[in-house]
Amino acid sequence: MLAQAGIVPDAIAPAAISEMPTKNELPRIHALRLAREKALAVLHAWKGKPSLILAADTVVACGRRILPKAETDDDVRQCLALLSGRRHRVLTAVAVAMPDSHVKSRLVETHVAFARLTNDQIESYVRCGEGIGKAGGYAIQGRAETFVRFLNGSYSNVVGLPLLETISLLRGCGFSIS
To answer: What is the pLDDT of residues 13-44, one digit of tens each?
Structure first.
């Protein structure tokens, strides 16, 4: 997604952190905590020159409930059954860690409503495999877009990186973007 904004990162490195919510952690706080922890983990592991580290985490929430990042077909099935005919929130926290370990972050919230899904629609989506590894068990940039009856907010946020806010945050940290 960064390439759409003309940004090519020097490296892409995973952050080895636990993504489990803490006890009673609300979705907004959870997303912000994970993005900040990811940015700092990569900053401290980075052996390159002093750099800005960009990290993000997307959380799908139904009320106060944080939906999982689907690991199995059954996870996808359960997420879609819960989201069927309901509104939910997609929260993406974006964090930038600077060489001095200072972290700046933003949180973007988008409201999405799914149409009521039939069992056949859910099973067809499960079979396509798109929902595996995705927060809330779906990828809006694929077949799941056909489930969306309402979206209020940033589409790129639901995909996983709110581009407008990410670019603004990077510029605010001194990163030059043409």
So the answer is: 889 899 999 999 999 999 999 999 999 999 99
Side-chain-side CA neighbours of residue 119 (13 Å): 0
pTM value? 0.92
Q: Has residue 76 been placed in a domain?
A: yes
The number of domains in the chain is 1
Can you give the CATH number for the domain in which 83 is found? Answer: 3.90.950.10
* 16 belongs to a structural domain: no
Instruction: Name, in order, each residue with C-beta under 8 angstroms of 131's C-beta and a sequence gap of 6 or more.
Output: 70, 75, 76, 79, 80, 125, 137, 138, 139, 144
Please list the active-site residues: 57
What is the 8-class DSSP label of residue 116?
Answer: P
For residue 96, the enclosing domain spans: 2-6+25-172
Token duo for residue 108:
């973007």
